[in-house]
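Lab manual, section 2.4: Encoding a predicted structure.

Procedure: take the sequence of the chain (393 residues), apply the prediction step described in section 2.3, and record the output as structure tokens. A sample record is shown.
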Amino acid sequence: MSEKDANPSAKDALVGGSLFGRWEKLRGREGTVVGITAILVAVFPYIFARAPVVSGVLQGYQSLATLILIWGIFAIGFDLLLGYTGLLSFGHAAFWGGAAYAAGIVAKNVSGDPIVMVVSGTLFAVLLAWVLGFLSLRRSGIYFSILTLAFAQMFYYMAASPLAFLTNGENGLTGVEVGSFLGVIHLEADIPSVGGMLLGTWLYAFVGAFFVGAVAVAYRILNSPYGMVFRAIRENEQRAEFVGFNVWRYKLMAFIISGAFAGIAGSLFTIHGAYVPLQSLFWTESGDIVVMTVLGGAGSMFGPVLGVGLYLYIENIVSTIQALTIPFTGIVLVRDFGFYWHLLLGLVFVVVVWVVPDGLWGILTRLRELAVDLGSRAANRVRSRFGNGGDGR
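Recorded output:
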């Protein structure tokens, strides 16, 4: 092959066409998705809480990074039900809070081993999801949503009073002592060396492992025949039933899987805070996860995680801003700015849903498609230029 023939293909690869094509082939593979997720989880706390300049602008901190991953697991599981199966539950606080209480009670009375806490909390959430799903899925639409809300509120009031001897009532479950991981590693301790610079604490690494595992499991489910049936039910439930699928059974399984994700997240929430507030069973927790999922983009794998990040950032960082000023001038625009964080969150939610109904992930998807389009155009220009003239004239 002559040098003249070789030059255009090399430029194509560099400019875009081949490069984007290769990336398009790789980006959908399970190994690629899980690998990139693991890398992002590894560098996230460093960028968010410790990187020069960037962390100063973001004002992030280690504990919030961990909390974002925990809620991210919750949101991924919730999206399996809402975004992929088309079932809107207003009662997922029962699984989140129930698992948190189960993990806390086990830690106080049986074992504080983090693995034991996660397993016990998740098992409790799975069993609860099976029972509530069996009862709630007898109805559809708004009736299903109201039933889930009613059941969750029942658990809230039971935890507040009749079961106060277990849950400590309105004061929440205190005195939870989380033991060492495998009897050796204290989760609150810093990781030594480079691992500590990136991940920070063993607790973050522990939660991060569950987050990556949750992504891998969810991605495997969504790309399996089971996930295809979930989407078929979302698109047209009657048609799915006509072609022979037992729709009720698939919906129940989606509900249980979603409850299992909520259970893992709720158990990790207890390990993270060593405390279970009664609020974790209240309906506002169910509302929060709906807002996070829709804000990030229901029906997308990572959109709900983006929604979680933005929601918790506004709740924990923006809410602490005393005064909104014009940069480098000191001119105050709004005093007690953080006091209005609910209003700001509401405005962001309305604007995103109104302008981009598929959420934050929809914005990123459009930007990616624009980049691919520009890259393809640039590659075509290079092809035509070197194809016509051969020497670029």
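Check your result against the sample. The first strand starts at residue 323 and ends at 325.
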